[in-house]
Amino acid sequence: MTAAPILPERHEWTVDDLGDLPKDLPYELINGRLIVPSPTPLHQYICGRVMFALELHCPDDYFVSIDQSLSVDRRSQPRPDVVVIRVEQANRSPVPVQDALLAVEVISPDSTIRDRHEKVRLYANAGVAAYWVIDPLRDKVTFTELLLSPKGGYEPSVETDGLLTIDRPWKVTLDLPAWTRRRQEVLARAAT
């Protein structure tokens, strides 16, 4: 049996340091901080629903991916839970952030500040046209869409916990009430 890899100690990480990490380690780099996520099955369930909804009408010029690294700058290489990229980038990692049309984050208990604040600034400054935040930690699963403003930064466009059909980036339907029901059923069964 081999020992678990020991990560080098660093106060500040850069993309140059990522080559020192094991290749099978899921990580993201946000403003010089290394984050090793460990999502729950319920988190991944919602990511899958979002991916499926986006793929349903996805044009041939784009590709929908889960947990894909984006190259932003020396101090940031985020891994959105779901991302829409140009199809030409479908066989590389990290994908240049300018080839991302949409980034989606599903909030976890340990990612709330990152997903609602740090990544909002990061993706907006990088020019990602739209950012969706899905919060399954509330009583009802909620969806927030932020769109890049011509003045810079994101502006809120839609916030709901209901059945949603929008036309950005193309026609997408998200059944948030169904996701809420499924989450409640699973949590009730897990509690017994």
From TrEMBL:
<dbReference type="InterPro" id="IPR011335">
    <property type="entry name" value="Restrct_endonuc-II-like"/>
</dbReference>
<keyword id="KW-0540">Nuclease</keyword>
<dbReference type="Pfam" id="PF05685">
    <property type="entry name" value="Uma2"/>
</dbReference>
<dbReference type="GO" id="GO:0004519">
    <property type="term" value="F:endonuclease activity"/>
</dbReference>
<dbReference type="InterPro" id="IPR012296">
    <property type="entry name" value="Nuclease_put_TT1808"/>
</dbReference>
<keyword id="KW-0255">Endonuclease</keyword>
<feature type="domain" description="Putative restriction endonuclease">
    <location>
        <begin position="20"/>
        <end position="157"/>
    </location>
</feature>
<keyword id="KW-0378">Hydrolase</keyword>
<dbReference type="InterPro" id="IPR008538">
    <property type="entry name" value="Uma2"/>
</dbReference>
<protein>
    <submittedName>
        <fullName>Uma2 family endonuclease</fullName>
    </submittedName>
</protein>
